[in-house]
Amino acid sequence: MTSSGFPGCQSAPAVPAHMAKSMSLLWGAGSPPCWRVMITLEEKRLQGYKRKLLSFQKGEHKSQEVLEVNPRGQLPAFRHGDVVVNESTAACLYLENRFQSQGNRLIPDSPAEQALVFQRMMEGLTLTDRLNSVIYYDLLVPEEERHDSALKRSKETLSTELQLWEGYLQNVAAGSYLAGPFSLADVVVYPNVAFAFRFGLSAGRFPKLAKYYSLLKERPSIKASWPPQWMSSRQGYDVLKDL
Amino acid sequence: MAKDMTLLWGSGSPPCWRVQIALEEKNLQGYNQKLLSFEKGEHKSKEVLEINPRGQLPAFKHKNIIVNESCGACFYLENQFKSQGNQLIPEGAAEVGLMYQRIFEGQILGQKIADVVRYTKKVPEAERHDSAVKRNREALKQEIQTWDGYLKGSDGYLSGKSFSLADVIVYPVVAFFFRLGANESHYPNLAAYYNKLKVRPSIKKTWPQYWLEAPGQEQLKDL
Lengths: 243, 223
Description:
The complex is a heterodimer of chains A (243) and B (223). Chain A is an alpha+beta fold and 243 residues long. Chain A folds into two domains: 23-99, Glutaredoxin, CATH 3.40.30.10; 111-232, Glutathione S-transferase Yfyf (Class Pi), Chain A, domain 2 (Up-down Bundle), CATH 1.20.1050.10. In chain A, 50% of the residues lie in helices and 7% in strands. Chain A has a four-stranded mixed sheet with strand order 2-1-3-4. In chain A, α2 (32-43) runs parallel beside α4, α2 crosses α8 and α5 packs parallel to α8 (184-198). Chain A starts with 16 loop residues before the first helix and ends in an 11-residue tail after the last helix. The relative contact order of chain B is 0.14. Chain B has 223 residues and is of the alpha+beta class. In chain B, 52% of the residues lie in helices and 8% in strands. Chain B folds into two domains: 5-80, Glutaredoxin; 93-213, Glutathione S-transferase Yfyf (Class Pi), Chain A, domain 2.
């Protein structure tokens, strides 16, 4: 946030510090939805927001502090001044709506590109559900209701879904992502893709997804918000390794 | 403009209905449309797969631009036709934030309804449990009570004082909920919302035809 040369003469639009300071994010590490919001805040040059890392394991997402922002007791819980926007994709859309001309444009104007951004963004929620059905199977389904056949079916559904995304990324290259230049579609979907590889997805069987994953790993907004404990331990889990 | 648009849809499907409401709100009547039958499996036909490889409805096309995913189509229509018809994204920050939040909470509501009413379709017999059925009903009950709370003392619409994309996207789910036999007296604020918007032109015009002709189901009457 610096100005150059004479007072009143700025080479790039400065982002008023107070804008980000009136924002706060309650988040949990390794949660793709939380990550989406953090990527968006970086992309819109809203660094400097207040944030608090909470522990899912300790049940802190059900604490009074969270419930006051998000009665559902879920993270991310995002506040901008008096405005609360829970649901990660909602918070991302809100930020793009309010800060459209600041930082990177995340929704293009051109009809064809815009249509694809919106479609892939919403499809990203299907990908999220199908990933969660496998990765969180034991959390979502009480022990006495679990069936190998059910988990098997969820894995097959997920595999089909991932192959669809592998197809969407046939021409992936630097600057050419889910809908062309980096967009809200990537903000929503990338954390899921990173999540999938963290849980053992085979780069050999999903080479385009792997390329997408490694290209965007270097993007400043993604690098800056990379889940901390993923850096500290190399080994994740391997529930997706046979997909 | 509308003549360059095509909508493949199925009757009584909240996602399809959303797009129809959005098209009306944006004064885009006159679009090409084709009613398909889920029961006959027409959503998996070549005609649909050519637009939507997922074999799902709605499948929407504007010239050669495809936007599947109902919410995606609604966002696209509001963005591309901002200055036409009714404004569906409010001006104020608080309303915009609330609108987007309700839109995505609406997905949760739809999912919880589906978990109850589509249980036997989705879960093979060998995997079914009474405990799961009970849990799904409880979860839906809690969810719908949350929505009833959202509409208590509200200005009439989901995001505040004016009709917005949140209503376009969530109203069909609410209407579907009552169509499944839910008791209006159990959820008075939600019922008031449901009945108030019933007569909005875009909603009245696109009301699922067979809901007018045949009685609804009763799966949710005791909820």
